[in-house]
Amino acid sequence: QLSLPPTLYLGGLPRKYVAAQLHLHWGQKGLPGGSEHQINSEATAAELHIVHYDSDSFGSLSEAAQKPQGLAVLGILIEMGETENPAYEHILSHLHEIRHKDQKTSVPPFRLGELLPPQLEQFFRYNGSLTTPPCYQSVLWTVFHRRAQISVEQLERLQETLFSTEEESSEPLVQNYRAPQPLNQRTVFASFTQVESLYTTGEMVGLGVGILVGCLCLLLAVYFIAQKIR
């Protein structure tokens, strides 16, 4: 995890939530999954969590973690893209310095907002839990609808560089994510209205081709009529 300065905080919430740390969850090379949240039952390769705590009510992250809505966490789903993401490289370029348990390093300052996906106004929000033991029911989750992207090489570096022990072993740290849990009557709010398409992708392609062919036939008919008139 990467510690964050308390000068960073979330706006738009009833109380002031200051930043504490960020961390990543990911899967294993060659296997699907890696994110802890799914949208429409679809997981992504990794997920970033930016953790904040209610500084108006509590003096520390550990104290707030035990209380309802003591924490506010931003969840960013991460998928593979075609190019390297320079924002995530601020973090990933230092992984080789902390390959083993209890190792530490320093990361030069960078703009945290660069890690976020586009269209921040589209998000899901619900009251949930920490995804690591003891899994306190203390988190106000905000999961963004849009995804961030990193390159295949960046993802593989994340999957292959770190080890969970003090000495290097044959097995890197992988699949450090919690499987999706039942909603248990929780309500998930969305900040936007998603209009579902009436057609599948294949139907849309077929419809587009049909319209194009129809237009060409109409143009040919007009052309031949014009030739006859002449």
From TrEMBL:
Enzyme Commission number: 4.2.1.1
SUPFAM superfamilies reported for this sequence: Carbonic anhydrase
Organism superkingdom: Eukaryota
Domain Alpha-carbonic anhydrase: 1-192
Gene Ontology terms, MF aspect: carbonate dehydratase activity; zinc ion binding
Cofactor(s) listed: Zn(2+)
Transmembrane residue ranges: 204-226
Stored Pfam families: Carb_anhydrase (PF00194)
Keyword tags: Glycoprotein, Lyase, Membrane, Metal-binding, Transmembrane, Transmembrane helix, Zinc
A GO cellular component entry from the record: plasma membrane
PANTHER family the UniProt entry points to: CARBONIC ANHYDRASE, CARBONIC ANHYDRASE 14
Family affiliation: Belongs to the alpha-carbonic anhydrase family.
Protein name: carbonic anhydrase
